[in-house]
Amino acid sequence: MDATLPALPMLKNFSWIRKLTYAFPPTLVMQLLPNADVIAPRLYQVRDIIHRQLQAVLHSPEKLEDTPHQTLFHRMLDANAWRTKVLPDLTELHDEGFTLVFAGSNTVADTLVMGHWHLLQQPELLKALREELLTVWPFLDTRPSLADLEALPLLTATIKESLRFIPSGVSLTRVVPAQGAVLCGQHIPAGAAVGMGILHVHQSEAIFADALAFKPARWLPGDHKPHNLEHWLVPFSRGPRACFGVNLSMCELYIAYATMLRRFDMSLDGTTAEDMQWRECIAAAYPRRHLHAWCHPVEA
């Protein structure tokens, strides 16, 4: 995904390039994209994995009965789950699989990268988080439940502050309806594509005091706050088109943070502020190396 990001602004803003790519064989298109030597084997590897999984399930649907819980395949291969009551063909299922592999991957990863970058520069905060985590995870081999982790106030506050720093310039764009729209007093014509600048909200000094500082304490109860900060935390957007993966993403963040904090003593491996600079390419593209850290396993 990192290798494909530099090409996305071009594909997003020039629709004729997107259409042109569909007219050529995929192998030729892969050679023309930036970082083709990195992208091609990765994408075809993922495509092959998805293809083999789909073929196995389509040829032997009874295999779904052996799974310990419901999976996406259960719903995707249930005709009643589709409005048309018609199952998608192999190509459509393949596209769905590709979307499920990629959607939500970079966003959670970037949140963890940004959060740990700031966290590893604050030894006192790191120590306090580990002490809090030990209250529900005293023995390394006995993992806590998600509910136990969600009840930890400092861990929750750290995750929220990490989400406030998620490197995303704009939300997914929307098309203005036929009647047009008025946004901030400005008339927007029908058919225009609009998006919200998430950073303008998350880094607003009018909402978040000392907005460029990583301060999980701002999310803890106690101090009087001039604003309802929860209202202004919008990494998943809001409204009927908000990210429907929010619960899964939060689950991943709790588990990943807790696992790294409990299992490893971490320290930065020479990462600088310049390494963490990013470009907006729908998702964040890091021209440099971004976060590198030493992770030494702790004793039980």
Automatic annotation (TrEMBL):
PROSITE patterns: CYTOCHROME_P450. Signal peptide: none annotated. Its cofactor is heme. PANTHER family: CYTOCHROME P450, CYTOCHROME P450 12A4, MITOCHONDRIAL-RELATED. It comes from the Eukaryota. The keyword Oxidoreductase applies. InterPro entries: Cyt_P450, Cyt_P450_CS, Cyt_P450_E_grp-I, Cyt_P450_sf, Cytochrome_P450_monoxygenase. This is Cytochrome P450. It comes from Apiospora phragmitis. Keywords: Heme, Iron, Metal-binding, Monooxygenase, Oxidoreductase. Coiled coil: none annotated.
